[in-house]
Amino acid sequence: MRATLMYAAGDVRVEEVPDSVVKLPTDALVRITASAICGSDLWPYASLEPEAGPARVGHEFIGVVEETGPEVTTVKRGDLVVSPFAISDGTCEFCRAGLQTSCVHPEAGFWDGQPAEGAQAEAIRVPLADGTLVKLPDEPGPALIPSLLTLADVLGTGHHAAVVGGVSPRTRVTVVGDGAVGLLAVLSARRLGAEQIILMGRHPGRTSLGREFGATDIISARGAEGIAAVRDLAGGYGSDVVIEAVGTMAAYQQAVGIARPGGVISRVGVPQFEDAPVGWDSLFRHNIRLAGGPAPVRAYIAELMPDILNGTIEPGKVFDASASLDGVPIGYQDMADRKVLKVFIRP
Q1: Which of 178, 219, 276, 281 is least surrounded by CB atoms within 10 angstroms?
Q2: Is 231 exposed, middle or buried (0-12, 13-18, 19+ CB in 10 A)?
């Protein structure tokens, strides 16, 4: 079978690899029919050291179940399924609490940590299939597939940011970052009824989509100028909820400056740092809280899927380019160069 491997920063190749197969009774083998390049894939694309490669890549996919182990009961051969970006058993105490990203099963974890599997490929072995995979409608129609694919990560992540931030009809929200997650955080904030949604972004095509998704205001400035502009729009004191959807220190500092006293900074951008200001001047003095983390999207799929199927939301609009597997290396470069927002892959 063919799959994508990252050899080093800027070096992505599509090659023949051994076929994925069922190995354990709880496995499923899925033929991938749709996958994607994620903004978080660009971090290793910019920094992977050659000694760490080649690495299989990709953590968002929809596909058809080809085979299951004897202990799998929730999906069967022929089912169309979507997979979250985290593998989970669905039965541990954290899974039962809706925190599948902290599943304690030995085989649980993130797709990007699976050395022999990746979603930018023709097929994939899914461990813990009962807890991980979610069955989709048998014939959703091709127009719905991009939006259903966002359930694997970016929609669930944007929704998680809004939920743990406490977005409600009474809140003023600022989203830092106009990538796919930031834009779907805008959509999610609107879905939860936010009173005001300010999007901080600099790319006109993306901010235009942000407007369509529900942003009431767009701020392109950064630093002190951007903080002042948001505060002015948000009643002078800042936003109740600030969603940080980038992961850099600059984005975090922007969020700290924008959050109003008693507000929440909800972080879902994969952090590229460990140490950050949390002391008296930054957070403590004004009772500003930190929330966020890797989204347990498995917990949100049942809630979000009906709105996609009935047309209430169309999160698949974040895909502005598509490619076959052969086009994946160019897709990475185009996303890194900000030529496109998010690439939809048809293996």
Answers
A1: 281
A2: middle
**Residue 16 predicted with pLDDT over 90:** yes
Boundary residue ending a domain (253, 268, 292): 292
CATH number of the domain where residue 93 is located: 3.90.180.10
Helix/strand/coil for 244: strand
Q: In the sheet where 289-292 sits, what is the strand order?
A: 217-219, 196-200, 172-176, 239-244, 259-267, 289-292
Q: Is the domain of 240 the same as that of 111?
A: no
The single-letter DSSP state of residue 333 is H
On whether both 142 and 255 belong to a single domain, the answer is no
The percent helix, strand, coil of the chain (3-state, each to 5) is 35, 25, 40
Cα separation, 121 vs 63, in Å, equals: 11
pLDDT in tens, 142-192: 999 999 999 999 999 999 999 999 999 999 999 999 999 999 999 999 999
DSSP three-state, residue 121: strand
- Quick one: 285 and 254 in the same domain? yes
Angle 204-213/180-191 helices, nearest 10 degrees?
20
Residues 193 and 266 in one domain: yes
Q: Do both 136 and 8 map to the same domain?
A: yes
Instruction: Give me 40's structure tokens.
Output: 């978080």
Q: What is the pLDDT of residues 272-326, one digit of tens each?
A: 999 999 999 999 999 999 999 999 999 999 999 999 999 999 999 999 999 999 9
Give dist(CA 310, CA 58) in Å, integer: 28
Indicate whether 138 pLDDT > 90.
no
C-alpha neighbours within 13 Å on the C-beta side of residue 75: 32
118 and 203 in a common domain:
no
Structural domain boundaries, residue 257? 157-292
Cα separation of 237 and 152, whole Å?
A: 36
Q: Quote the pTM value.
A: 0.96
| CA distance linking residue 213 with residue 306, whole number of Å | 17
**Residues 85 and 162 both lie in one domain:** no
Count structural domains, the chain: 2
Tell me: pLDDT of 139 over 90: no
3-state SS, residue 135:
strand
Same domain, 197 and 238: yes
